[in-house]
Fold these 3 entries.
Entry 1:
Amino acid sequence: MLQLKNITKNYGSFRAVDDLSFTAEEGKIIGLIGPNGAGKSTTIRLIMNILQPDSGEILINGEPYHDEDSDLIGYLPEERGLYKKQKVSDMLRYLASLKGMNAEKIETQIDLWLSRFGLSKWKNEKIDALSKGMSQKIQFISAIMHSPKIIFLDEPFSGLDPVSSDELLNVIKELKTQGRIIMFSTHVMETAEIICDHIIMINHGKKILDGTIQDIRRKYGSDTITIDCAGNHSFLSEIESVAGVTERGHELNIAFKPGADVNALMKEIVNKAYENRCTISSLKVDEPSLHSIFVSIAAQNDGENTNQNTDKK
């Protein structure tokens, strides 16, 4: 178990992490999300012992973090950092040796993971001969081949084609079933919604969201209606119980006001569409997306911070 207790980190007068506490359990994929500059990267560096907190403590299995605990951690950074003129096998050997692996186990793990990702024939090729997606797989292998207990994945699917993304996702799910703690950082809310068991959102260094996807939807979300509509849909903004309309390609996501009668609203939408010669091919009530909740809470939190800063002036 990984625990952060009241962690604070300042850079001069700027507070990057502000009294942050959360728990990450074994066998869970925890999404660490937030806007740019929210404090995610600083939080990860604190957990990895690259930075030291100004106050608070980080515990692994109930014990304070020690230098040797770094071997328990695997990290896939968003900015990839392989030595391009090195051979794939030499690169993996070097990074594995930094984690204390013995030579025999290193060779076994290299062959196992290269085979798993269909990269065996590239074992003795230089990194700069690989495609971006292949390089990303090599960096992922380097992050997990020493069997870490805690794994940080920062935008792991960036630049991967759908087949490679599924390949990587299958491995991540296997690591989860093995009881690893997986911290997953991404800006793509749809991805977090699909694979994460638990979401922690931070903004301005503070935790503003902490819970399962289901709990978050129940607590923060308001239901919406999605329609596939061809034609002029401006009439939607005239319906009293409609709170807002978001266009996503040919689909319209309609947020309705709290307390609205959903059945009556759907009937009114259909009738108004007919009157305005707008053809609806599908209509469904759906739960709020993590994206919409993220945007709503981040905007609210930004507003609160702006008001607090104004009050202090």
Entry 2:
Amino acid sequence: MAEVALLFPGQGAQQRGMATGLYGWAPVFTKVIDSVFGLMGTEGKRIRADWLGICSLIDIDDVRRAQPLLFAVDYALARMVLSWGVTPVALLGHSAGELVAATLAGVFTLEEAVRVLLGRVRAAANGPEGGMLAVAAGADDLLRYLTGDVAVAAVNGPRQTMLAGTTEHLRSVDERLRADDFTVRAVPARNPFHSPAMGPVGREAKRAVEKIPLRAPESLIYSGYTGFPLGAAEARDPEFWSRQLTDPVYFGPALDRLLARRELSLIEAGPGQTLTTFARRHRALRSGRSESIPLSPVHPDHEADRQALLAVADRFGASENLAATPIPVSEAAFVNGR
């Protein structure tokens, strides 16, 4: 089997009920995700209740739910893969997924990462209303449409670009693109992430990062914000982490460099298959030199969640351990440990 790299999706990948089929069924996943919720305090209990469908307080696309849940699910899935004895040679996160990669690489402790995450969420919740669009076009093809505060938010591939802006400006750009026959899809986000409109949010979120003794990564991270491996100076710079709310994501270029010199099995540790879809369009995967393996189904339900995970675990000889000692949901909440 080829060497493994882990991919972590971010804002836009969230789905109602994502990975809930693993909760109480996969012991490592359950214990880790409850540890994350526990570190979130009282808000963690509310997030967990929303996630499990016990109540409905805040919609999944609201930043107060989307980003904490994405972090928790991504991190718990990754820790489960590591528990199988898998040692990834590289990590690559998209948007908020980079915080998961940095936590696994030791830039942040889990407790510190949760503080940074919640600081971002609080700042974004008070930020400007807006959204994001996925457009089937190259970034250069879209420059003449960028009016008002609308900006290129992500370059995910040669013809896979995301735009972001505040509501009124983004609506105008959306209408112009559709009138010119571009394929456009709204991304489930209520803020203009990765655009200059989020400047005040980034400056507020920086305060939480400045209080943390940031460290050089102990594992190789390809940064979606530079397209290159994350260096020690960047990792230790609070400004680098705060700019992630305003700077564009260069997932496509980062993926190019990750796949340039080695054959890899890319495991998407997160809900859905967004990054798997991007990766499978890459020439290294089209040629069969590398592959992308999602841990989650396209559409979550309990049985699909479990079958998707079992299929991957079986490849690493770990399927017999997944549900060996299932934890009843009523007993699973806030298990101690990391």
Entry 3:
Amino acid sequence: MTSFHRTAMSDNLRRLCLVRLVLLGAMVVALGLAYSYQLDVPYTALGLILLVLVGLNIASWLRSHHEWPVTEFEFLLHILADILGLSLILYFSGGATNPFISYFLVPLSIAAATLPWRFTWIVALLCIGIYSMLLVFNQPLEALAPHHHDSSRLSLHVIGMWANFTVSALLITYFVVRMAQALRDREQLLNQLREEDLRDEQIMAVATLAAGTAHELGTPLSTMKILLEELQQDSSGNPALQADLDILASQVDSCRSTLKKLVATADSKRQGVACHYRAGGYFRELMRDWHLLHPSTALELGIDPKLDRFQVSGDATLKQALINLLDNAGNASPSAITVNIGSDGECITMEILDDGPGLATDIADQIGKPIIINSESGLGIGLLLTHATITRFGGTVTLYRRAPRGTRTLASLPARRINADE
């Protein structure tokens, strides 16, 4: 986004150079007409000012093609230089009575469409201030005065021109800035929606593959369970082997239970039945299921007893998203992790602390983006799916670095508060 904005500012500077070129051409023609009509104007001073503006335009054009990005403040300085050059030309050629006085609206419009609010107001106030000064301080040009027989006094025509310019400047500053900001916000929203569509396409592809895989796993798991039961019967005289087989049997049972819950959740969604559970029991079961799959990882668990005053969705994708966060922490710190689950009144928070090598900067910057990140431990698809799922439930996932090492993962989920007596 930042690099695109800097490129846009360079393009705007090139457009400003083209606008200057048109203005300089008009002024050269006007100066030629003044000479042909033998008007009493300081041709030398006006010629020098035009030469300086030509040089500035050439330098600005070369600057716009430089690799060094054009900032908003620099673009403001270019607009202020144009206003200053125009002010000097108007001073030597009749001041506020010069027809070119309305050109002040052009740099004001450009600033309103391209620069932030505060910079646009600087340009607007400067244009109004210079216009006001040119009403009094100028070198009169009798041929341009509306009533040149009494040009020492300000005519109603000149005052009306000033009032019209002031109102126009204020209106442009307000409405054009608002419209330009609305267009920028809309463009940003469209970019965000395109990213979300791309992410959803990837998630749907993964979901389709996962559904097929889950269907195919049923038969192998049933076969493994039968074989494990036979092995347990045959190894009754070997306690060590029996203990290992018991662990394998519990793992297989956990996988079968997960598949059954997945099918049950899919059926309930097809029937339009929404399942909700008390948060305390939900998270206790979640941690029990996860620890069953990772028995070698010491788990320090803290659950706020007040969580049963809330309820959470029984959606299987939400449970899998939270398990993905636990898996990441367990893989980074296989010896032990700490999990704290509580509430701040409106949201349920799940804090996961590990003592692993720490969070990679590229993963922290790209979490939730449709780009799959290559890493030593995987492809980053778990973080992508987790972020998408929790965002769908209105929650957030934030990763922090811990000192001196490790990662703090914080998942926040909005919970619907229910009466403790219900």
